[in-house]
Every structure is written in structure tokens, then in C-alpha cells.
Description:
Elements: H1 7-10, H2 12-16, H3 28-50, E1 59-64, H4 71-83, E2 88-93, H5 101-104, H6 109-124, E3 128-132, E4 141-143, E5 147-148, E6 151-152, E7 162-171, E8 176-180, E9 197-208, E10 226-228, E11 234-235, E12 241-243, E13 246-252, E14 259-268, E15 272-273, E16 280-282, H7 289-301, H8 305-314, E17 317-321, E18 334-336, H9 340-348, E19 376-378, H10 381-416, E20 420-423, E21 442-446, H11 454-466, E22 471-475, H12 487-499, E23 504-510, H13 546-559, E24 564-566, E25 569-572, H14 607-611, E26 615-618, E27 645-648, E28 652-653, H15 655-666, E29 671-674, E30 677-679, E31 688-690, E32 696-697, H16 704-715, E33 720-723, H17 729-735, E34 742-744, E35 751-758, E36 763-770, E37 782-789, E38 793-797, E39 804-806, E40 811-813, E41 816-823, E42 828-834, E43 844-847, E44 851-855, E45 858-863, E46 867-873, E47 878-883, E48 889-890, E49 894-913, E50 916-935, H18 947-950, E51 965-974, E52 983-988, E53 997-1001, E54 1004-1005, E55 1015-1017, E56 1027-1035, H19 1039-1044, E57 1063-1071
Amino acid sequence: xxxxxxxxxxxxxxxxxxxxxxxxSLPAAGAAAAAGSAYAFTDRMxxxxxxxxxxxxxEVRWWLAEGLNTDATLRANVKQIADLGFGAAEFLAMPExxxxxxxxxxxxxxxxxxxxxxxxxxxxxxxxxxxxxxxHWATANLPDTYTWDGATFDYDNKAASKELDYATVLLQSxxxxxxxxxxxxxxxxxxxxxENVFEGVVAAKITKPRKDSGQTPGYGQGTGTGELDFGSxxxxxxxxxxxxxxxxxxxxxxxDGQYALFVYWMHGTGETFEPSTSKNYTINYVDRYGIDAxxxxxxxxxxxxxLKETMRHNGRGEIYMDSLELASYGAAGVxxxxxxxxxxxxxxxxxxxxxxxxxxxxxxxxxxxxPPEFDYAVARDADTVRVQxxxxxxxxxxxxxxxxxxxxxxxxxxHGLGMKLRAEPSYGMVYEISTPAKYxxxxxxxxxxxxxxxxxxxxxxxxxxxxxxxxxxETGAVGGRNYYYDMDYWTRIAYLQFAGxxxxxxxxxxxxxxxxxxxxxxxxxxxxxxxxxxxxxxRQPASMMYPEWxxxxxxxxxVLRQGKPRRDLAILRTDNAFxxxxxxxxxxxxxxxxxxxxxxxxxRDLTLQHAGYTYDYFSPQLLEDEANVRWTRDELxxxxxxxxxxxxxxDSLELAxxxxxxxxxxxxxxxxFVNNTSEIRSHEGPEIxxxxxxxxxRFVQDSEEELGKVVARIKTLRNVAxxxxxxxxLAALKKLGVEPRVAYTAPxxxxxxxxxxxxxxxxLYTFAYNFKFEKNKGKDATTFTLSMAGRGKPHTIDVWTGAxxxxxxxxxxxxxxxxxxxxxxxxxxxxxxxxxxxAPRTHAVATTADRVIEDGARLSVLATRDGTYTTTLSDGxxxxxxxxxxxxxxxxxxxxxxxxWNEGDRKVNTETKFGHETxxxxxxTKKTDLSFPDSRLTPWKDLPATDxxxxxxxxxxxxxxHVSGLGTYETTFQLPRNWNPNNGAYLRIGxxxxxxxxxxxxxxxxxxxxxxxxxxxxxxxxxxxxxxxxKIVIATTLTNRLLQRGYETQGGTQDYxxxxxxxxxxxxxxxxxxx
Length: 1075
């Protein structure tokens, strides 16, 4: 759980009424002063975390039924999103069966009106909003009803997405070619396009042909990977004669073997997305034209002066760009641009044309299941090295153009509108993963593409930290599991991501229950493809729990946005093929990831992680950004993550970055070179091995000799070390004086931490999580000690209530504050360190009781069992406390009411505007109560329903195993006669089977229940000398009912309800007297 320290607030009156006085070793004045200081900090922190601003709340992705919904429905759903406690909505158009796309699709009057209305309503309710950069989510795109630069916006418009295509002409030894060069056979997506821009013709000797290549008609590229003689690559473009649209060549192949002519053409990709009033074509991501067209469209068709003013007033508006789902369909598998070759020559210093045969590959967009398959390889190892550098140059050029021609101008335009740009950058394409962050206002990952794998998250987190950007996550898309996961699962996934650096959660997703007749069924309109989870809305029984739950998550996100991140190590790695999708089925979803199985992708040795070191990955190229990168002898990026050392392990390094690293190392920052390492770059391919770190250049124009000299100079410095294997890195770092800021006193393989430092308030925040929540579910808690750099007074934040209380037992030694925690799998804790209180008064360092409570100058122990307990104080004294505790009170019999949720009545809403009537339908939820008085706790499926009760349920063979909904449990008890002001009590629950619970004691709500702790302090709600009533409400998933209805899901029937032993567990608080 998030460690609940509610005893101080829950038993404040009890503690105040104790007869025994404060610890005798503290003078009264000193005790009062110390208590005053402690109270000032806790009061300030309690005030800060009692409430949670809407800007810290988790958000939702909202799938709209094109522009079909009525205004009343849109307003009601914006209100619902706000009422459920979400802080913002990113909304987009999804295809809607039965809706006329010309009337309701993206670009229509209906869609534009609805977009404006949602923004206005969100602004009125204090919510943020995000818009896609086109219809659907996959790309930025525009409709072909739009005219830009005098031309229809279709595949032929220069602002639309372009690709490189080619035809292959095979020539035998000495054979001549004379005539018109063949054009590539266009794929069906662009078959009707007129555009065919000649990009060049290259000849090469073929040592191994591709299967079926060069055959007529069509001169196809073939399949598989062929082989060519690298030295024979010859650009023949200057020998081509143009006559209007005909390009002719006269050339004879040498007589030493088979040759090929590769004839290159550029045309539109024809990639489209729906729903649209016509066809929405993906914009050009290579040339600047694409973003210019997009801006012009929005300015002309969407952004009225009134809407611009609303956006500025909102202050939290964004355009968000999802994962890059760009596609090409032609032979080369490469996106292209009108100016790519010129840009390449300017940036890389040579012409790319002769090398196009070794650049083309099987497909534009790559998942991580298998390594890419290039059309042609080369035979000699020396040539292979050269080819890889050429490919690196190509990838680097694409990366730079993506950043400079897409992200940079888009961000600048949005800033002028008072908006920001958030994106899931690069992955799926060859763009470098970390460099785009410079031109983003928010960096986003996702649990689907990255599988919630924290080692992969590090690959994006580094750039977010280097540029001070929020790190968000599209959270919750799991195939085949819609309506399946319970609230315990969503909580653990959110916590997992927090431990991985995420401080902004965007749940996937939300939709209104209203939609078209053809596409709407109970429990509601889906919006997103129904195969994918989830629908966080009022259709879910658990929605009654959302306001408290989102507030809890918001508190953690608030913590994780305070001050600046504190990280230990910057591990440099360039990545143009970032891990996305393609995870083995046995390792999905997130709870089964490689990371959960101690199998990192990149830095493979876990010794550093198990010692407490935190580390991020980013490209060495970020070091070249002189305007944004700062360092001292102790930290890289001191106003941000403050990395204490830099590690290099990949064998290649950019020369410019090496020179920058030399300057950093000369400044005194520790640098460590690690040899003989490996990486996982694809799930079905071989591991990539690196023999010697930073031993070769990445780019063609970089001098190997110069790089060697720079690296050699770095290695001569006293603050630089080199080791021959990753397992030696820990000892090397310690020898360099680099220790974790938050260390484990013993190696630990189940805990992850992330820390933030608020320098203004002088507070260090640490979030600790027992992250193997499913793999180790049901196992014992992990007890560990955090050693936090700095002397200060530790406190805990109860994220369910906002209570901030001093930690009862801790130790300060060697400039570190030591706090012991015990967390079950899936539990987390937030620790704050008041660094202003560097010399805390006498306190407890250990106890044999359940815990120590510190209330100003007073120390007390809490115990749930009779006994004599020993408490050790920071001044070396010990105290023994004899405690008597009332017996636990088992709660064995309950009045149970199960409320079954199922399809109700069909409803129709209509609206007339823009000269037509719109109709939407939805279904109410029929709720049927079934009572089971004076029952023992058992899963719902085993409750003894009568035939009469079962007859109220739906289905051919109605059963309690089909029921989903709410369960209400009520019982009464009395406190024992010997109950006194020193007593309090927990409610301890056996299991809720993963479903969230709301607890009321005597009609008053108890603090939120963490489903891994399953214990809550109810002391303040109890009545002595009279009957106490406990009411527990359980909200389930809809899985069981939907399975009965034939809904498509991969999950089986779930156990619902309160089960196991439930009891009142009394405790006694007694004062500690020093001996």
C-alpha cells in the first residue's frame, strides 16, 4: 500500500489524553521548539496534499462517435469526466458504423462544432484538453476536400506523405540497356496518382539476386535479401536524358557478372485515415510542407477568434501525436521528401543516391518482433561497416528533418495559440528516440507499445529529464481484455509507471454510452475497437469509486512533479529502432514483461538497480545541445536530474558528442566505459554485442582516428574509469565516489524508487514500490531499508487522505537518513525528507512494537498484541513498554445485497442542426437487487440464490456466476467493555478479489482502502458503549455479465465479493518513557 500513517490523525485525541508526559531527556523549552518546527512542516505538507488540483489528476483518452453525438450528450460527458475526478480529456474521431462520414466525419461542420463545444465545456469546468493532429490517432492528416498551395490535398500534393519506390532491371554480363527507364509499379494505395518524380538510377554488380527481382512486367524488386558488390555501386543519374516525362538511359553492364539497374521514383504514399468527410491523407513528415499545410488548414477551418481565446483561457490545451504509424507501400519501404537528397548532402557531406540499394528495406514501420530485412547486403566485413554508417547517416537525417520540419514548427505555432505539443516520439520509425524531446512540451510512452517495461521507459525518460519535460503514459490498452481488469490492477499499473518515471497518466480510455444505432449496445457505445481495454466511465460499477481513486493517483502525480528529478546515472545510447510492439505473447501484458522477469533490454546487468542506483538512457547527441546542457564536477544537468556519472557501453559514438563528453569529463564529472556488453534490439533476432565501448564512429564523415584520440584523452582523466564487463560497474562507480542518492542497505530485486528534490522547500520526495505486483502476488512483504543522502526528518504521505505524519523509527548516520519499510508485492510508500530539520530531536531508531508514533515531543508505541516491547532511542537509551490490547473481533455474519447490472431500456436522443436531424441511441442499465441476509462471506457465484431470485436474472440458465455489479455488506459489533482512550482499531479484510471497496462506519466514510494492504484505521469513526455498524460496498468489473452475453474477451469468469476473514483488530497506544 501507500503506507498509511493515519494513526496520528486517527488517534490524536487519544494521544492528547494520555497521562504520561513527554520524554524526560528533552528540556521543556527545547521540546516545545522542536515540536513547533515539526508541526510547521507537517501542517504545511498536509495543507499541500489534503486537496489535489485538477491539473494533477489522471486524464482520459475520449473516443468520439465521429461528430454524431448531440450537444447535450457532449456536455453531459464532459461533466461526467470532471465528476469522476479526471483532470483532462484528449479526444478524437473514431469510425462509427451507421454514421454518414460526409456529415459527421473529421472535417465536417458537425465534427468542427463538436470539437469547439468540448473545448468550451472543458474550459468551463477547469479541465485540460488535447486534440489529435488529424482524424483517428495514427498520423497528422488532412482531408482531400482541402486545397493547399493551389492543389487538392491528396497523394499528389507536395504536402502529403511521400515515399521512395523503385524498379529493378537485371542485366547479364556485358548486356546493354537502351531506352526509357521503367517506372516502379505503384501500390494500390497510390495507383491512381499522377506524381512520379525521378530520384536517380544506380547500377550495381549483383553477387546474389533477390528472388523474382527484375522480372517483367513491372521490373519488381523481388523478395528476401540479396547481395551486391559495394564497390560497384555507381550513380548513373547524370547519364539520363529527359524528354518530358520520359527518362532514358544508354548503358552497358561490365562483363564480369550480373548487374542491376535500380531506378528510383518518388510519389505519394496514399496513406489515409478515417473517419473523414472524404479521405484524410497523411501529411509529409520529411519536408516542411506538411506542417505548413496543417497549420493553414486549422487556421482557416477550425480556429475561430472565439475558440483561440477559449484555448488561451484554458491554459492546458494541447495537440498530442500518438505513436508514428506512418506507412509506405512501394518497393523501397522508405518515406521520402522533395528535398531529402539535398538535405542529406548538406548535413552529411556526400550524395546518398549511389547507396539507395543498401538503404531500402522490407517495410517503413518496424515492430520489435524481428530485426529489419534490408533489400541488399554486402559481402565484405569492411563494406558492411561502411554500409551501417551510411544507414546511420540516413536515419540521422530523417531524425533531424522530423524534429526540424515537423515538431519544431508545430510547437512554435501551438505556443502562439497558448497551447503545447505532447507526443509519443519516433518509435516505429527510424527516428532517434531521445533527441525529439527538445521540441516537445511533453514526452509520452505507452503501456501497449512499450508493454509497461520500465527498462524501455528509461529510453524515453532520459530525454524528458534532460529537457525538463513531463513524462506521460497512454495507459491501459490491452488486447482482448476490455471490461476485464479490476481496480487493483489499474492501481498497480499506475504505481509501476510512477516507479518508472511517469508523472502524468492518460488512461486508455473513455467513451460516451451514446452512439449510432448500428454501433451501440449495452453497456455502451465503445468508440475504440471493442477488443481493447478500457472504458473508464459511468457504465462501470467501479465508477462510484473513481473520484477518490483519481484523487489518490493525483496526489502521487503531484509529488512526482515537485522540484526536479534526482537520478544517479546517465547511460548514453543512441537508438533508431526503439522497442515498440512485438513482445512475445508469454511476456505480455505489463505484469509479464521482460522487466518483471529480470531481463532488461539495454543495460543488462541488474547489480546497479539492485543496489538502488537510478539511471536513464539518452543519446550522446543531447550533450551537443550547448544551450541546454550544463554540468559541474558533481552533476550533469544540475537543475534537472543531476546525474552523478556518465556510462558508455555501445561500441559507436558520435564524434561531436565525444568532444562534448571530453569537456564534461575535464570538468570533473565521473565517466565510466564498460566493454563486452549486449542489448536486445528485437525479440526474435540475436542479441547485439559490443566488444569495446565508444570504439568506432557512427557516421561516415566522422574520423575514426580523431574519435580514438578524443576517447583516449577522456580515459587519461582521474575521474574516468574503464571496466571489461558490466558486473564490474558497481565497484568502479564506488571507487569513483558515486553512490546512489537513495540506496538499499542490502541488494534488493523487488523495489524500485524514484525521487524528486524541491530545493525551494528543501524537501526530498521518494516513491518506493514493490513492483513485481503479479509475479510475487500473495508472497510475503519485502522489508528493506532506504538510505537517503542527506540529514533530515522523514515523514510519510498517505496518498488516500493527504495525511502527512512523522516516520516513527529512523536513523541518521554518515550523512544519510535511514528508513525501514515493509511493502507487500504491489504496495508503495511515499517518504518525504525535511532537509531543513537536519538535527532532529531524540527519536526512536527501532522498536519491537508494531510501530512508533511521534507527536511533536511525544513518543508512543502502537501494538496490536499483548506484550512487552522495547524501543531504542537515537541517544542510545532503550525504553520498555508493557501493552495490553483488547482481543480482535471477528465479523463472520453479514447482510449481503448483490446488485446485478444488465441491459435496460433503449433510449433515443435527437437533435437538429446544420439542416439535418441527428439520432443517437443508448441503453440504460437495469439494476436488480438480490438479498442474502445473515450470510457468511463467499464469492458471489456461491451465494445460495433461490429460484425466485435467479428468475430475476437474464440468460437461458441464470446463475450467480453471471452477475456483475455492486455488493453491499453490512454488519454490527460492539467494542469490549475495557475499551479506553488509548485504544484504536483497524478494519482488516481478507480479500475483495481485486475490486475497490468503500467503507462506512456508523454512516461515516473511512479512508480509502489500498487493495494490497487491505487494512484501514477506523478509530475516529467508532462509538464506545453502543452498537457500531460497518457497511462495505464492493464494485466489480462487468466481466461475468458480459461473458454471459457473449462479449469477446480472453478472460474467464471472475470471483467477486468480500471473502476471507474480516475482523476488527484493536491496538493500544502507550507512551514511551526513556530508561
